[in-house]
């Protein structure tokens, strides 16, 4: 059984910030459960572009507001508490934040913990361990 709090993760190697976002990585690949689980916050009045080419991500918005734009189709979706979106097709997307957003995110395959987005908005491909 694994029990962790965001308080104990804060300020550790599991607490990653870059640009307008901060990710507290509660469950990581090293925990051996097949997914990673994060609490992510994105600052108000920010715009971030992402493209998870190697991961599927599910996002549950618990606080704040903004919009999600599918950069492949131009489709725009409002984001607010209770909204979930799933990037099951590796969609390039933009998150525009009006009021600071806090989200709970699941990644498959799991991230290792120190990933940050590259110039394309992606995390690197997971390393296969033989």
TrEMBL record:
Source organism phylogeny: Bacteria, Bacillati, Actinomycetota, Actinomycetes, Mycobacteriales
Taxonomic source organism: Mycolicibacterium diernhoferi
The protein's name in its UniProt record: L-ectoine synthase
Top EC class of this enzyme: lyase
This enzyme's EC code(s): 4.2.1.108
Gene name of the record: ectC
Recorded superkingdom: Bacteria
Protein family according to the UniProt entry: Belongs to the ectoine synthase family.
Keywords: Lyase
InterPro entries: Ectoine_synth, RmlC-like_jellyroll, RmlC_Cupin_sf
HAMAP family (UniProt xref): Ectoine_synth
Catalysed transformations (reactions): (2S)-4-acetamido-2-aminobutanoate = L-ectoine + H2O
Pathway in which this enzyme or protein is active: Amine and polyamine biosynthesis; ectoine biosynthesis; L-ectoine from L-aspartate 4-semialdehyde: step 3/3
Statement: the UniProt record of this protein carries the keyword Lyase: yes
Biological processes annotated in GO: ectoine biosynthetic process
Molecular function via GO: ectoine synthase activity
Function text: Catalyzes the circularization of gamma-N-acetyl-alpha,gamma-diaminobutyric acid (ADABA) to ectoine (1,4,5,6-tetrahydro-2-methyl-4-pyrimidine carboxylic acid), which is an excellent osmoprotectant.
């Amino acid at each position: 059984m694994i029990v962790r709090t965001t308080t104990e993760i804060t300020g550790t190697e599991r607490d990653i910030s870059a640009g307008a976002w901060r990710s507290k990585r509660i469950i990581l690949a090293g925990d051996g459960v097949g997914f990673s689980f994060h609490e992510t916050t994105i600052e108000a009045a920010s715009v971030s572009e992402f493209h998870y080419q190697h991961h599927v991500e599910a996002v549950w918005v618990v606080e704040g507001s903004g919009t999600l734009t599918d950069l492949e189709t131009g489709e725009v979706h409002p984001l607010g508490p209770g909204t979930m979106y799933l990037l099951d097709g590796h969609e390039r997307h933009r998150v525009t934040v009006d009021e600071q957003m806090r989200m709970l995110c699941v990644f498959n395959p799991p991230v290792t913990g120190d990933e940050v987005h590259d110039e394309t908005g992606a995390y690197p491909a997971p390393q296969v361990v033989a």
